[in-house]
Amino acid sequence: MGMWRWIRRIVLYALAIAVLLAGVGAVYQWYGSKQDKKTFQPAGKLYEVKGRKMHLYTGGTGDVTAVFASGWGTASPYADFSTLYGGLEPHVKVAVYDRFGYGFSDSSGGVKRDIDTITDEIHELLAVSGQKPPYILIGHSLGSLEMIRYAQRFPKEVKGLLMIDGGSPEYYAASPGYTVIPAVYRTLRVTGALRTLYRFHGFAAWANSENNGELLLPNGMKKISKTAMLLKAGNRDMTDEMRQSTNNAKIVLAGPKPLQAPMTVLTADYLGKLSEDADWQDSQAALPSWSVSGKQLIVKDSSHYIHGYQPDVVVRELLKLAGE
Predict the structure, then answer these.
(1) 296: closest CA among 164, 204, 156, 152?
(2) What pTM was estimated for this model as a whole?
């Protein structure tokens, strides 16, 4: 009996220490977030969409506007796509939006993240901010779904589509939306663990390994990316996006196909390891069939965030679609 009493005490002490550490971490996160919000100011402008503030960065010049959709969980789309601005803005207009729950935008307030709601929000944002078609729609990763859906619903506005390692509707329809992933991000964030990890040298590069460790981002953009993660990672909107992803893909599958606008599919070679994921490789090869004029280009020496490895390739192919 004595031994079990000691075991019980040890377990209780361990639980008490865990609760104490979680409490301390939560206070650390609260205070850090309060400080971060003082300097985390919009890079573009905030516009009222569905009664809440949505962020849009714009730049460049020209008759064509390139509209960018980030992948799931990319907390700062503005920082993420910044490797492309220098090559694009002398030739085309650039419009990078933060979905609700991302970057400088508000949360959605609990509005379901279904694909038609998201594309309605994008459409309204582009209108109230004064953007004018024709648009080149660029979708990275899961952002491909909203760009394809936008082209289905508003085809007259779309001049072309560019997928940056964007998944096909068929691929996402067959993939369950694992909400455990955002749950892990959220837990790390609210307990202060993520903030603590960022203090270790090399963690930021490791966490962004699919984005070339953010090597091509200037320090200012790296700071924005990090701050956005510390404020937004795994939040309710991101969680529901993941939860809705399978059904959102099925909605796209039920829509018009093929699209009348040309589509270029940029597929990462995953640093020579693309063939190790046959399902992804095959789905990428089939994705151009979503357009009457589709093509695929395998981008060598790149990973999932192609624009973090080979931005010149992305710029070149986008300008081709724009007719530049």
Answers:
(1) 164
(2) 0.92
